[in-house]
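Reopening closed ticket. The problem is back. First fold of the pair:
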Amino acid sequence: MTTPNPTGVSPPLIELSGVSRRYPRGTVALQDVSLSVGASEFISLVGPSGCGKSTVLRLIAGLDRPTDGQLQSPALLTAGPAAATAFVFQDPTLMPWASVFDNVWLPLRLAGMSRAAAAPAVHRVLHAVGLADFATAFPAELSGGMRMRASIARALITQPRVLLMDEPFAALDEFTRQRLNGDLLQWWHAAGLAVLFVTHSVQEAVFLSQRVLVMSARPGRITAEFHIAEPQPRTPAFRSTAGYIEACRAVSLALEAAHSDPAFAP
């Protein structure tokens, strides 16, 4: 029996309540982390290296388990469309011996779909990410930005409910990075999925996100949260507005405060 929701507000798609992660040798990666992500929300995590940002993504993806606390995530459900979660890493991790088409087809192939049956979906997602003319190309023939587009296409082909991105644009030049930022917002807006995005760039986090969460040094905790009020999807012009500049300043100050506070020292 379900309980009526008198407020009409949908429950979060992802929720961590008091989650901690301690590894067998005693390292505490996360301590008492609580956060929620709505069904079509874009959230970025920023913080120093080693603060547990990637650990949060691994927990949500079901690749790791919390030591303490409660975790709700589609990836922990029974396999199927309701559980669909995709992960994009900094390294595109494409198969070098396979064409772009075959790299993108891989998740559907593993699910038992033939190449012919998958072809319409593969071509559709390649068109969406700007690689329609590169289906037969191999990863070595692509630029870094194009390889990342192929990696994102491989994630989107599964029509996930959740897209987890771990510093996907960190190795790219600034022009390519900014262009992919804009494209990512278009893909997210079109698909209506939840995105949790890890980055070291305050500017990137503010441009992309509806909310930016700041984490302390290990053991990782969420020390500040910022709502970015600019409507979505955003254009490059947002980067020159007073609101963008002020949000970047506020997030940067919160990062500095979290790092200097003895309560959050590693």
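Second fold of the pair, where the issue appears:
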Amino acid sequence: MRFTYPQGATPLDPDTIAGLIPHLTTQRELNEFEARNILLGERWALRARGENRGILLLTTLRKLHTRMFDLTWRWAGEFRRVETNIGIPPHQIPMRLEQLCRNTRYQIENSVFGWDELAARFHHEMVSIHPFPNGNGRHARLAADLLLTRHGQSRFTWGSRSLVESSGVRKTYIAALQSADNGDYEPLIRFCRS
């Protein structure tokens, strides 16, 4: 299979690619297969019972990734073990995710930010950590949406288009993330509701 990567995507290493479960031959087939798998994971998450209720738990974030990609990748829900073009060193992932969850709980309890800014910052930090070999943006977007809905807020619209393939909307999203990297969250907050 030949992989193509849109702007801002992390290229997959051979070990990661070896974890592909279905026999697919094109990037389009992979995108479609993942989209169906993600929809099943989203349905599971939106039921909000038991194991998936507390989105600000490391176990729930891992389970969410597993449910989003378990039919596609053998390593679904496992933290990445290799350095990538973005993200923190792999050995720091569990600690930084736990810290993100604690910080976000504190921000909620103390009304540090409005809901849109809080969820946008949570999303940005998840993407920056880059915990999984693949699917980090999609996972972080759904996790941010769940954070909002679990607290009675409406989901983000994320540009109202697919962010998987190269497009003007994806370029705007990547630029907003890069602005957040530099401490300016306004473009990302605007994009989340566009």
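Update: turned out to be a display glitch only; the data is intact. The first helix runs from residue 14 to 17. The mean pLDDT is 93. Please close again.
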